[in-house]
Amino acid sequence: MPTTSPEPQHVLVLNCGSSSLKFAIIDANDGHEIISGLAERLGDKAPSIKYKFNGAKTVIDLAANQAHAEAINTLVNLIKDHNLDEHLIAVGHRVVHGGEHFTKSVLIDEDVINGITKASSLAPLHGHANLLGISSAQASFIGLPQVAVFDTAFHQTMDEVAYLYALPYKLYTDYGVRRYGMHGTSHYYVAGQTAKLLNQPVEKSNFISAHLGNGCSVTAIKNGKSVDTSMGLTPLAGIVMGTRSGDIDPGLFNFLTTQLSYNAQQIDNLLNQESGLLGISELSNDCRTIEEAAVAGHKQARLALDIFCYRLAKQIAAYMVPLQCLDALIFTGGIGENSDIIRENVINQLAFLGFSCNQKSNLDARFGNQGIISSANTSPKAVVMPTNEEWVIALDAANIVKEL
Ligand code: ADP
Predict the structure, then answer these.
(1) Does 41 carry a binding-site annotation?
(2) At which positions is substrate bound (predicted)?
């Protein structure tokens, strides 16, 4: 019987940061990437767009101070010049904060914009950029359905015991102060893929997934659902990250303000941009650079790696409390997918849970390769699973469009 290939279902995926815009056109049928790129330094002196299409990399310089709207305009021209709008069925927006209101992806209409605007008070920088991306895309792709996919949605299954802070209850009821968690699309995707790899239904799987990129978070997944996660009201909480501190003693605020005269903005910068691997190493936020320096004898680079791994291992062990039993620990994100050094270190610290690292499999699972990296016949398993948030966004958008 001749097989017919499915109709292309191309989705333009937009991920707007405060000064950057990641984009890709993905075929929702198979995750195939048609074009992808990054606009950066938006609103600054020398913004630019870099993109990859048909194997070639190109850079377009934007005029000084051009920001999201102009970058999207340039992107639209690019798409039209290459006839890439032909099979576009939707635009999928990664939205960082959906508050408690959004528990799944939705078609964007006026109510949704109002909901995102409301949730934006919880993450002003990201929220503002997300809304800018949505309004620019709506203006450029008139009539094309726009879908919002929330980074927080996967974690909306957490119980109040996991998401409430021990603060005056009114801060939650009146202002929504609670743990929301981020990287939900990634944790959801790698959990599903790991269940496939282990040949077991995700609804009957207990996983701990460690998304380790520039931002890092760990999620406890029980029977396929998020039951706890390390990021909180904002992405600053939890384990050590590239430039973010992760958890600290909140008493530090008083110390910094009274002893060192910091204001709120300076504290925010310190914790978000000057801490983490960068803060400890005083060298870089980039894990590769730190690993190379540590091997060459840089003491603070070694210390940064040791603290990163120790805090990560401690967080993973803590999630045995909600899970009680574990099928697999999943590593993903740029560090999780590539750093055999960090994976081995963390697995060794967790040997008391039954983990054992297979060194050859650990070395093989790099540069986009998935695989089981724990020794044969040991449990729980340790798995490397490349993430693909763009595909999840494209799939959600395509499924919503199907229902229209
Ligand atoms: P983002 O959160 O911006 O999407 P990524 O998921 O791309 O970030 O992760 C970036 C991190 O991955 C950086 O710290 C980078 O050094 C690290 N990384 C990438 N490749 C390697 C490698 N081969 N070894 C160690 N770390 C790596």
Answers:
(1) no
(2) 94
Question: Closest ligand 1 atom to the C-alpha of 214?
Answer: 2
Tens of pLDDT along the chain (404 residues)? 556 778 899 999 999 988 889 999 999 999 999 999 999 999 889 999 999 999 999 999 999 999 888 999 999 999 999 999 989 999 999 999 999 999 999 999 999 999 999 998 887 778 888 998 999 899 988 999 999 999 999 999 999 999 999 999 999 999 999 999 999 999 999 999 999 999 999 999 999 999 999 999 999 999 999 999 999 999 999 999 999 999 999 999 999 999 999 999 999 999 999 999 999 999 999 999 999 999 999 999 999 999 999 999 999 999 999 999 999 999 999 999 999 999 999 999 999 999 999 999 999 998 889 999 999 999 999 999 999 999 999 999 999 999 99
In what helix (H) or strand (E) does residue 23 lie, and over which residues does it extend? strand 21-27
Asked about 151 being catalytic, the answer comes back as: yes
Q: What's the CA gap between 124 and 200, in Å, rounded?
A: 40
Tokens of 58: 């190109």
Ligand 1, residue 342: give the atom nearest the CA: 25
Q: Do 54 and 67 touch, CB atoms closer than 8 A?
A: no
* The model's pTM: 0.94
Contact assessment for residue 117 and residue 126, using Cβ atoms and an 8 Å cutoff: no
- 93 C-alpha to center of ligand 1: Å? 23
11 sits in which H/E element: strand 10-16
